[in-house]
Design a protein that fits this description.
- This protein has 111 residues and is of the alpha+beta class.
- It has 2 domains: 2-33, no CATH class; 46-109, Winged helix-like DNA-binding domain superfamily/Winged helix DNA-binding domain (Arc Repressor Mutant, subunit A, Orthogonal Bundle).
- 46% of the residues lie in helices and 23% in strands.
- It is built from 4 helices and 5 strands.
- It has helices at 21-31, 46-61, 66-77, 80-91; strands at residues 2-8, 11-17, 63-65, 96-99, 106-109.
- Strands 3-5-4 form a 3-stranded antiparallel sheet.
- β4 and β5 form a beta hairpin.
Length: 111
């Protein structure tokens, strides 16, 4: 956990960031990657493979209702929290279109 306190202009800031082991590893890799400003060497991180698999789930289905997609992502990621992060990431993905249906949103792979 990382806590940041200070001010932005006259607004007080008290921010707590919770990072899992994978986040800390990526942050550490960037800090030890050599000269400042140099990009870190790309690595096939488990999170990247998980993200690609999550995209493939929706791509293969073509479209899925939000709750069903969330259930699959949770099973894929191994936890409810990680599944929700993947769903949010899909929500903001350029290849995904979301249709607001009466019961639940429908996620469409639009490529």
């Amino acid at each position: 956990m990382l806590r940041i306190r200070g001010h932005i202009g006259e607004w007080p800031v008290d921010l707590t960031l919770e990072l899992d082991d994978e986040d800390w590893a990526r942050l550490g890799a960037r800090l030890t990657a050599g000269s400042p400003g140099a990009p870190a060497a790309p690595a096939a991180a488990p999170a990247d493979r998980l993200w690609q698999t999550a995209q493939q789930v929706l791509r293969s289905a073509g479209q899925m209702e939000g709750p069903a997609l969330l259930n699959q992502l949770q099973a894929l990621a191994g936890s409810a929290e990680a599944g929700k992060r993947l769903l949010v990431r899909l929500r903001h993905c350029a290849q995904v279109r979301i249709e607001n249906a009466p019961d639940a949103p429908i996620y469409h792979w639009a490529e």
